[in-house]
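As described in the Methods, two query proteins were run sequentially through the folding procedure within a single session, without resetting any intermediate state between them. The first query and its resulting structure tokens are shown here.
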Amino acid sequence: MNQKLSGKPGAVHISYNSCRNRHCPKCQAGAAKVWLAAREVELLPVRYFHLVFTLPKQVADIAHQNKREIYNLLMRVSADTVIKIAADPKHLGARVGITSVLHTWGSAMTHHPHVHMIVPGGGLSTDGTRWITSRKNFFLSVRVLSRLYRRLILEGLAKLHRTGRLSFFGDHAGLADSTAFEAMLAPLRNIDWVVYAKEPFAGPKAVLAYLSRYTHRIAISNSRLVRFDAGSVTFKVKNYRVNGAGRHTTITLKINEFIRRFLMHVLPKGQHRIRHYGFFGNGNRAANVARIRELLGDQPPNRKDTSEGENDQSPRILALPCPCCGGRLIIVDTFAPAQHPRAPPTSARAAA
């Protein structure tokens, strides 16, 4: 059913039934809020760092034809790289926790697979008896991360090819030959792979604000659409190679090309785009977070129990804010498919 919602008195909005597809811009807004509420209780009172792992163009090209295998490899290897380097006593000597988010697009919806990673600035000691804090504005050496990441990805690609788990089509059909595939990988062993580390976040609240923008993002949101007609679509893009006013511009694509680019970023069925590693691993996450809070002398954030005091007469509240005033949206009516919504509520009902 669809829902009729009331914000401030006199304002009524229609919220259409969710399709719940993870590539839908409307449905992901609500899903992000629910996911963030669960992550808020796991937020630690420490600095957080933002890391980005990318793939060279040659690997990204074959990833388009082997999404499941290479996306899994990208997420697993990027996490293993951070965990291994952090565990080395020469660097941090601790067990870290990681939240990884897979993105596959650039601003113009081109194919650009990369991983955004949020990592607390420190970790548990080997025996789990103390919290080891990283340096104030430094987590791990990007140069060291890059080299290990490069080696592990190339080893993983060679293994996937050797076991016949990669497919090649069109211009890349020749890479099915092991000699040709090795020749394609050879130059990648001698170039620097991009691993980017941003400055630490300005507190835990900034981490949540970041996650709300990135975890459930899709290739393009409705807000970026400028106009469209029967033949083309125009949308906003950001050129990261340009600074200043010229960085934000628009691009116009033919309908078929726009759809092709969007569909490039539809993930295989069952592919997990958000993953947790280290002490954030799903199996022991709650126990690890509780232990770390104990070591840091911190209490978990208070969460309001919305279930207390509720009864059948309590108004049903939607997670999304009112677009008019930013307040709570109260569900005042529902209507089934093919049923037209009734007139707006009376003033007395709206006030209630």
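Immediately afterward, the second query was submitted; its sequence and tokens are:
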Amino acid sequence: MSTSSNNVREGILVGCGNPLLDISANVPMNFLDRYQMKEDDAILAEDRHMPIYRELVDGYQAEFLAGGSVQNSLRIAQWILGQPRVAVFFGCVGEDDYAQRLKEKAAAAGLDVHYQVNRGQPTGTCAVLITGTHRSLCANLAAANHFTIDHLEQPANKALVDNAKYYYISGFFLTVNPPSIMHVAETAHAKQRPFLMNLSAPFISQFFMAPLMAAMPYVDIIFGNEAEAHAFATGQGWPTDDLREIGKRIVGLEKLNPSRPRIAILTQGCDPVLLIQKDSVEEFPVTRLAVHEIVDTNGAGDAFVGGFLSQFVQGKSLDVCIRCGNYAAGHIIQNPGCTYSGSPQFVE
């Protein structure tokens, strides 16, 4: 029995991110070694990684999935809501078969996508390298890297941004177009509407701290896992490894709208999710799965956010939002890639 959502209007949620076609396959450990990658990596492709994509397609039983962090989260939210076009997604693709494939997969998931098309670049791809229950991501952003703010300023797209009530952007998008992030953040702030963001990967805090900190005063809810939170703390020079303390410090960073205090939501794999608010830290237990039930941890974090958003846009309490996030993540890791099966069974 999934949560009813008949009261949610179309276009209430806007997300910006990197639309990537995931090319997912089981590979041996020496595959990672050859490309100087580690288990559970999330990296941007360099020249040495470029042969990966063709090698996966030619040499392994690769599966194509509509990917990219924000697009994943919005697809999961749509699945749980069971009502199409609640979520609007912006990102940049090429003019090629991969873009067509992405569009079809996104539309089938109920997403209302408004891709910017860059004719000079191929659609972005992400190699999802599965080794047992671990997965490593290597993203070749390609066209996704060429998103420009003028796409959001086109009248039809501007109307979609202006009419939304909730906004979600990944840290990954900081590598692409910070002006677009600031445009959405400023819109959310001007309209007194929630702006949610994700730390996304340790390398974001290592290499893109300046644009992240420029956006942070606008952020009402920040998501991250323990590795991302530790990388952020290191980047800030904070003398602590304590996740709760890191979360409190993130919550305490400068905020433009003090009437809506920032919230940090930090996941820890199978350990409890931490909900950190100004005066409190709450724990939400995660249902542990047996090893044989875990198919692929790819997309668990994206799914958590998707589950959370599906309830948040309905005005549900934070504890319901987090429980739905945990439900979604637990479902996703029992399926290959960031995919789902059957009808959602979340019960408040």
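The CA atoms of residues 93 and 153 lie 18 Å apart. We note this only descriptively and draw no conclusion about the first query from it.
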